[in-house]
Automatic annotation (TrEMBL):
Keywords: Glycoprotein, Membrane, Repeat, Transmembrane, Transmembrane helix, Transport
Residues of the ABC transmembrane type-1 domain: 1-104
GO CC terms in record: membrane
Spans through the membrane: 20-43
GO molecular function list: ABC-type transporter activity; ATP binding
Species per Swiss-Prot/TrEMBL record: Noccaea caerulescens (Alpine penny-cress)
InterPro entries: ABC1_TM_dom, ABC1_TM_sf
PROSITE patterns, A to Z: ABC_TM1F
Protein name: ABC transporter B family member 5
Family annotation (Gene3D superfamilies): ABC transporter type 1, transmembrane domain
UniProt xrefs under SUPFAM superfamilies: ABC transporter transmembrane region (SSF90123)
Length: 104
């Protein structure tokens, strides 16, 4: 009799746990997009701050520094774009996944 429960008790427990799992699914459906949005906003702000800091450093360089081919305006723009994309990938996806895994 330890493992036997009457049918009405089984039905009640089944409905209870099914309701809990449906509620968890609905909460996840709402929280996950908010979570990804907030990490995207944080990543965008970080990229903006890094680009601003890099631009400030480039502006204060001596004129002769810009004569080097690796320091041309095109190379600097490409480097800023590539580095920003790499950082956005790290902050947006990897960090969000790490935080999500640590939280659960």
């Amino acid at each position: 009799t330890t493992f036997f429960e009457p049918p009405h008790a089984l039905r009640h427990d089944s409905r209870h746990w099914a309701t809990i799992f449906v509620l968890l699914g609905v909460i996840s459906l709402i929280v996950y997009p908010v979570h990804m949005y907030l990490f995207a906003v944080a990543g965008g702000r970080l990229i903006r701050r890094i680009r601003s800091m890099c631009f400030e450093k480039v502006v204060h360089m001596e004129v002769g520094w810009f004569d080097e081919p690796e320091n041309s305006s095109g190379a600097m723009g490409a480097r800023l774009s590539a580095d920003a994309s790499l950082i956005r990938t790290l902050v947006g996806d990897s960090l969000a996944l790490t935080v999500k895994n640590l939280a659960s």
